[in-house]
Specification:
heterodimer; A: mainly alpha; 1% strand; B: alpha+beta; three-stranded antiparallel β-sheet; 6 helices; 3 strands
Chain lengths: 246, 97
């Protein structure tokens, strides 16, 4: 009985994802970000800080408006499609304490392994080679963080597909890392002097952001496919809005 | 035996337990959601919700979504603590021997 109760609680937690809209919207948002990362960076590199700042600004603006559009779209779709079919649920308000606890847990569980690995790699390799291999480990590291979050969320909500998505994110990150390794690492940064806008550093930065862009693109496609499959299943199970007045 | 008899009878009934569990993880949910998730009939659901309301575990808020009447149910703080207590009691029954 307790298992069934836990299942009911998990199903309620997962209700926001029942129709696949959230994944499709998140996937679209990811593809928008990937577009900026891949196409805006795909121009001759300069050492001008203003160029980096302008792209960082574009990404921030895209994030703000992208999230706003996604939120409005989701609100409309759920109001017109999901709620008339399977009902309306108002989520618990997230308190400041809960947000702080979440941030603390993320710091506690993610940062020590990341900094540990970084410290270990600096012990066995020089800072220059760690930096020049950034296009390889950066997408793998990002994918690993996403995978952990997806698996945790999947477990919390009892959604197996989130665990599969997490595994696919990780595989995509590894694949991008292998691809970057296969095409050769950027020139080693052994003799670099301080300053981040030297040509070798620029290439490392460019390649790392390209890796990230490709990872974000693949992840966006994975999310859209997952969302679409979920949507088709939901629509099959709930073809019409609930007809009786309630 | 003492532990068993201390279980909250209002929550102990399977259908009501499901409803309380469903409401425990959200701020509120409407009748349709509870109907779909609990797989109860409309009449049965109404009866159980009324019983929970009478016990002070659930409160209803009637509004309109457009022209359609819309009722949202939420667990009261009394209901939340009763559910927590029920879970603890149930756990202690099985944990002792």
């Amino acid at each position: 009985m307790n298992v069934q109760i836990d299942t009911a609680i998990k199903r309620t937690r997962a209700y926001w994802f029942v129709d696949g809209f959230t994944e499709m919207a998140a996937g679209g948002f990811f593809i928008l970000l990937a577009g900026i990362l891949l196409f805006r960076w795909n121009t001759p590199l300069t050492s001008s800080p203003s160029r980096f700042l302008s792209i960082a600004g574009e990404i921030s603006i895209a994030k703000f408006f992208g999230l706003l559009i996604v939120a409005l779209m989701l609100w409309w779709l759920k109001d017109h499609f999901t709620y008339p079919r399977t009902g309306f649920v108002r989520g618990n308000r997230v308190t400041t304490t809960q947000i702080l606890t979440l941030i603390r847990n993320i710091i506690l569980f993610l940062f020590p392994p990341i900094f540990g690995l970084l410290a270990l790699s600096l012990l066995i390799a020089s800072a220059g080679s760690v930096l020049s291999s950034m296009p390889v480990w950066f997408p793998i590291g990002v994918a690993l963080i996403w995978a952990v979050l997806c698996v945790w969320a999947g477990n919390w909500m009892g959604l197996r597909r989130f665990q599969i998505i997490g595994a696919l994110f990780l595989l995509a990150g590894i694949k991008v890392g292998i691809w970057q390794y296969a095409i050769g690492l950027p020139a080693t940064a052994e003799n670099m002097q301080a300053g981040i806008f030297q040509p070798a550093t620029l290439e490392i930065l460019y390649r790392s952001l390209t890796s990230l862009g490709i990872l974000v693109l693949i992840s966006g496609i994975i999310l859209i496919i997952s969302g679409f499959v979920t949507f088709l299943r939901y629509r099959k199970e709930n073809p019409t809005p609930y007809s009786e007045e309630i | 035996m003492k532990n068993l008899s201390s279980l909250d009878r209002v929550i102990h009934e399977p259908a009501r337990l499901t409803l309380v569990a469903l409401l425990s993880s959200v701020k509120s949910a409407d009748f349709l959601f509870l109907l779909k998730e609990s797989e109860l009939t409309k009449g049965n659901l109404s009866v159980h919700l009324t019983r929970l309301e009478e016990a002070g575990y659930v409160e209803a808020e009637k509004t309109f979504r457009g022209k359609i009447p819309h009722t949202e149910y939420r667990l009261t703080s009394k209901g939340k603590s009763a559910f927590e207590q029920y879970r603890k009691s149930l756990g202690s029954i099985f944990n002792k021997e």
